[in-house]
Structure to design on (650 residues):
C-alpha cells in the first residue's frame, strides 16, 4: 500500500462502482451529497479494530468489510429506517497488502448494496493497527423513528433473526476447534458475516409497528437492558422461547452452554422489539417475553447469572473472558 | 478508562450537552436523527491517528478534538454547506486517562458549536493507538453544491484564510525550537487548532458564488491540482500574491522557506475557489492566480520544484520529510 499511495488506491477502490439512487454526489470531492427525501436522516457510526472486532486470520478481508457495513446498517434499520448510503474511514499499516484493502472494500460494497445503499465516500489514512470506521445513513420514509424508549407494560417482546450463533463461531475460533468441521460451518459464517434480517423490519413499515426496537449487538440481555432502562420498564424473557436445538448441538461439541451464547452473545444483529398485545406480530418475528412494570431484565422471573453482554474496555461482563472481540 | 467502562464514560461525555436545532434525536439510541431541510445533506468523513495527525505531547486533548471537528467542518463548508451536526468514533488504549477522552470531547463540542452544529452521536472502542474518526453533515439551503469541477478558463483564483501557518507550527514542534518563544505562538496555535474561515464561505451564500471551491488540506498546490484536474483546466498561481511577511519572519528564525510552507503546507483549512472575472470577489477573499487552458498547476508560469503537498502512505511528496503529521 505504501508503494501505491493513497490517491491511486482510492481510485482503484472506487473504479467501476455504481452509486445507489440516494447518492447524488459520490467520492472525489470535499464531501458527498446524499438525498434525504424525508427531510430528516438517520445516522449511526461504529469503529471496528483489528484484534478486537475482527482478525485477518479468522475472516477474509471481504467478510470484515461486510461485517463492518452490516452492523451499521443494522443500527439504521433498528430505528425503522431504510439504509441509503455509507461513508467509511480506513486506517491501515503501510505494509498492508493492497488486496486486503481491496477485499475490505469489495465486502463493504456487497453488503451496502444488499442493505439498499452504496459507499458514498471515505478516507484512507496510515495507522499502526487496521481500523475501520463506518457511518451509515437511512431514510424513515415519513414514519416516526422506532426508538428504545417506547416499550409499554404489557407489550410482547419479539425477535427476528438468529441469536447466539456469532458467539458460537467465536467460541469455535478462539477455542481452537477444527474450523473445517462442517458442524461448525454455520456458526463460523454467522460470526464472520452477521446477517441482520433487514427485510423483517423494513418490509413491515406502516403495519405491525413496534412500540420499541433495537438490534442485538451487545447481547440479548444487555440490549434488552438498554431498552428497558430507556423505556422505564422491566422485561421478562422466557427461556423456553429461546432454545435452539441446532445451537445446542454445536455447544455440546464444544462442551459449552448454548443458553449463555443466546442470552449474552452479541454481534448477531438480530432485531428485538416490543409490540402491543393488540398488534399482530409481523412475519418472521417470534415472541420471547413480556414487558412488565419495574426495571431490569429477568429470565423466567429470575435475575440471570453470568455474563449479560459486551462492554468495551471491560470485556464480557461477569465471566470476563478475554476472547478477542 | 478501563476502570470506568464504555457506557459510564459515554454518559459522562454527553452529560449537560445541548444539541443543535438540526439534531432531532441525539445520543443514546441505535442511531441519531438529524434534520435535512433541504431534502439533501452533505457528508464528509476523516480519520485522525495519533502520531500521524496529532500528538498528545504537542497538543492538548481539547486542541485535538477541535482540530478533528474543524477539518471535517471545513470539508462540508467547502461544498457550500452549513454544518449541522457531527458523529464521532473514538478508539483508545485501555490506559488512556479519562481526562484525555473528556478533553477531546470538550474540544469537539467547542468547535462543533463554533461551526454551527453539535455532536449527535458516536462510538467508543478499545484500540492500541488513539484514533479519531469524525463524520460531518451540512445543509446546502437549497443552493447547488460547490464542487471542485466547475472552474472555467479565465476564472480568478482566490483564497480565504491563512496559508502556511500550520506547516510553520509543525516545523517549530518537529525542529525542537523553543515552543515558549512568543514569536512562534501564532504558528503553534495554527498547527494545533486550524481556524477555517467558515463565515467567509457560509455568509456569502447566494452572492459572489464561485464556480469551484475546495479547502486547503493537502497543501495549496496539491489541492489546486485536484481542482484543476476535476475541472479539466490549468491554474497559474502568482507567487507575489502569496507572500506573508509575518510568516517570513518565523521562517527566518528556523532557517526555513516560508514559500514552501505556503505552497505545500496542508492543514490550515483555508478555502480556495475560482470566480468568473465578472463576479466581484466576496469580502475576505484575496486573488492569488488565474485559471487557464491546459492541465496542472504552475507558479508564475513554471512547474513548482519541491514538495507539492501531503499524501498518506508516501509522506510529503518529493522532499519525503518523515515529519509526524
Amino acid at each position: 500500500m505504501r508503494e501505491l499511495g493513497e490517491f491511486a488506491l482510492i481510485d482503484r477502490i472506487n473504479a467501476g462502482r455504481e452509486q445507489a439512487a440516494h447518492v447524488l454526489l459520490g467520492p472525489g470531492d470535499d464531501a458527498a451529497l446524499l438525498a434525504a427525501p424525508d427531510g430528516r436522516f438517520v445516522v449511526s457510526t461504529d469503529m471496528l479494530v483489528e484484534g478486537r472486532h475482527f482478525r485477518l486470520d479468522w475472516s477474509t478481508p471481504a467478510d470484515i468489510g461486510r461485517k463492518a457495513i452490516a452492523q451499521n446498517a443494522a443500527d439504521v434499520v433498528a430505528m425503522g429506517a431504510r439504509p441509503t448510503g455509507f461513508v467509511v474511514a480506513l486506517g491501515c499499516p503501510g505494509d498492508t497488502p493492497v488486496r486486503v484493502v481491496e477485499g475490505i472494500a469489495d465486502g463493504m460494497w456487497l453488503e451496502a448494496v444488499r442493505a439498499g445503499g452504496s459507499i458514498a465516500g471515505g478516507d484512507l489514512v496510515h495507522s499502526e493497527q487496521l481500523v475501520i470506521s463506518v457511518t451509515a445513513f437511512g431514510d424513515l420514509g415519513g414514519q416516526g423513528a422506532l426508538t428504545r424508549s417506547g416499550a409499554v407494560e404489557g407489550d410482547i417482546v419479539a425477535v427476528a433473526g438468529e441469536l447466539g450463533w456469532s458467539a458460537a463461531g467465536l467460541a469455535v475460533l478462539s477455542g481452537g476447534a477444527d474450523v473445517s468441521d462442517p458442524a461448525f460451518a454455520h456458526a463460523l459464517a454467522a460470526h464472520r458475516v452477521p446477517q441482520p434480517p433487514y427485510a423483517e423490519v423494513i418490509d413491515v413499515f406502516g403495519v405491525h409497528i413496534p412500540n420499541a426496537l433495537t438490534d442485538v449487538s451487545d447481547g440479548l440481555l444487555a440490549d434488552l437492558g438498554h431498552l428497558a432502562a430507556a423505556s422505564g420498564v422491566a422485561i421478562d424473557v422466557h427461556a423456553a422461547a429461546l432454545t435452539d436445538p441446532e445451537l445446542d448441538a454445536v455447544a455440546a461439541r464444544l462442551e459449552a452452554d448454548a443458553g449463555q451464547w443466546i442470552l449474552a452473545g452479541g454481534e448477531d444483529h438480530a432485531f428485538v422489539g416490543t409490540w402491543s398485545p393488540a398488534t399482530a406480530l409481523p412475519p418472521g418475528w417470534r415472541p420471547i417475553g413480556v414487558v412488565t412494570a419495574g426495571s431490569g431484565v429477568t429470565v423466567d422471573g429470575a435475575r440471570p447469572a453470568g455474563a449479560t453482554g459486551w462492554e468495551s474496555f471491560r470485556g464480557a461482563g461477569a465471566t470476563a473472558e478475554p476472547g478477542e472481540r
